[in-house]
User: Which sequence fits this backbone?
């Protein structure tokens, strides 16, 4: 996937639909028909996010006494960024053809029509 790299921050989707930053640790090879899976570390917004994870955490997966982070493996990609337990990349977008915009003509620099004011459109 273009733009995806180890160390890059993507967004992990919680089961309440909110997203949290996830640092990519490893980009996994395609497994069968599943592409773009990653391993990474998710930074939670305190322990109050734990109930919103789409799975139950084992105690060894995070330290409650510190800023909660969770190491996750084989996290699939969801282009829409709405499916819990997936990741989405805000920097990856489908580019659509842009319409050409023609600028309106303006008075050349230094010309103000003799009144000292810029022309009105």
Assistant:
């Amino acid at each position: 996937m273009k733009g995806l790299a180890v160390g890059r921050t993507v967004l992990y989707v919680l089961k309440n639909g909110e997203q949290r930053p996830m640092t990519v640790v490893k980009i996994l090879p395609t497994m069968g028909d599943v592409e773009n899976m990653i391993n990474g570390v998710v930074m939670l917004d305190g322990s109050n996010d734990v109930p919103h994870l789409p799975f139950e955490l084992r105690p060894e997966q995070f330290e409650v006494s510190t800023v909660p982070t969770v190491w996750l493996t084989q996290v699939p990609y969801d282009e829409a960024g709405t499916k819990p337990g997936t990741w989405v990349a805000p920097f990856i977008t489908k580019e659509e053809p842009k319409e050409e915009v023609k600028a309106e003509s303006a008075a050349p620099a230094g010309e103000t029509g003799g009144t000292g004011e810029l022309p009105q459109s």
In short: DSSP finds no helices and five strands in the chain. Residues 25 and 33 are 22 Å apart (CA to CA). The two ends are 46 Å apart (CA to CA). The mean pLDDT is 78.
